[in-house]
Amino acid sequence: MFAGQSIILMLAIPVAGAVLSLLLQQPRQVLTTIVAVSAVEMALAINLWAAVLAGPGIVTAAEQWFYIDAFSAFHVVVLVLVFLLSSAFAGVYFTNDAEHAFTPPVARRFGALWLGSLAAMMLVLASNNLGIMWVGMEATTLLSAFLISLYPTRLSLEAMWKYLIICSIGIAFAFMGTLLAAASMQSGGAVEADALLWTHLASADAHLDPTLMKFAFVFVLVGYGTKAGLAPIHSWLPDAHSQAPAPVSAMFSGFLLNTALYCIMRFVPPSQHALGDGFTNGLLIVFGSASILVAAGFIVFQRDAKRLLAYHNHSVCKSLAFFAVGRLGQRFGSHEMHTISGALRADTLWGIALLVSLLALIGVAPFSIFMSEYQLLRAAAGAGAWLALVLFLIASGIVFISALRHLIDMVFGEPQAHQAPAREGKLSVPIVVVAVGLLLVLGLWMPLSLSQAIGSAAAVLAG
What is the CA 171 to chain-centroid distance, rounded? Predict the structure, then answer.
């Protein structure tokens, strides 16, 4: 019901919330506003996803400038879920931040940038026009950069500028790829006004210039891959995670990087249509294999817990891990792993959250990532991609052993000096219970409706 209007509302409400945040006088009012906006967005996202699955498979608005199919609807739900959990955690984190004062000016700036980033990411997911999608991606860079240096220090400002410069260069590459994709369609005889619409570019009837499309995909992969943190163009990633406040790190990892991956995947169907599967899949495998190998190498020697998490990827799980490290960092006064020792005894709730989230991240059964990795191995074996399979197994083994060693030291080690446990806010337990529950339930039992919805999302990319 009202599915088309839901798209418009999901774009407008965060913008209105961002403006309202600038007018509020108390930090608590700002934190309440971002939770309320995220909750409304969650209700709209579920309504939108249900409409896509129950109807013809798409929902459009504004004469198809906004277009939601099963693939984008799935991402919208994940986006808003991560944002709702992160917004709730922001209330816990900032009200217990003894190191920095969450003053009204800081709160207003945070609320405006936070909800502005949500609107920009939603614009990326809802856009049928690849040019507008690029504008949304650039907006996420500009808005989220200043969240890294919410509390300006030498290191946070350095991380912010590194993120801003490197990602802006990447976005410029993506812009060139978008123009080349449009040019490839015009070379095939398309109407100029329709050349940037994904529905036309990915159509089976589209006539695309193979040479231009090949260059387009390379530029897009490198450009958006920079924002997604793919190796070897990931150098901004650990610095931004280590310096940003924990809720911001959770949002970055939980979905901002996935937004960039979403943009890459939108270019896969037209690229495969023009060039066949070999070229496109080959590039994705190369960058994916390089990324997991580089991550494995850095995880072995990592000392900072937030930088350790920067080299993992999973929306809900990684968000929970950043929540735990953020609160434990406040308790111990540092994010250094040798300092966060004996976390389970120092803070039972967040110690359990850290234990569960890291076990899930490294693929321990019965968590959902275990099944994801199993499916990846099956797909690689079925496709005969033996080199990629071997590299994945080697890198995964290194990550498993190294991260498990770090986890044992942090959770079960000898406790260091730390602050006495403060009274947790009302939202702390629900945040941990919901996140852990999702990881366990989806690992043990995948509802048929959810499995079909994920299948529908994958079918969009299959063409």
Answer: 17
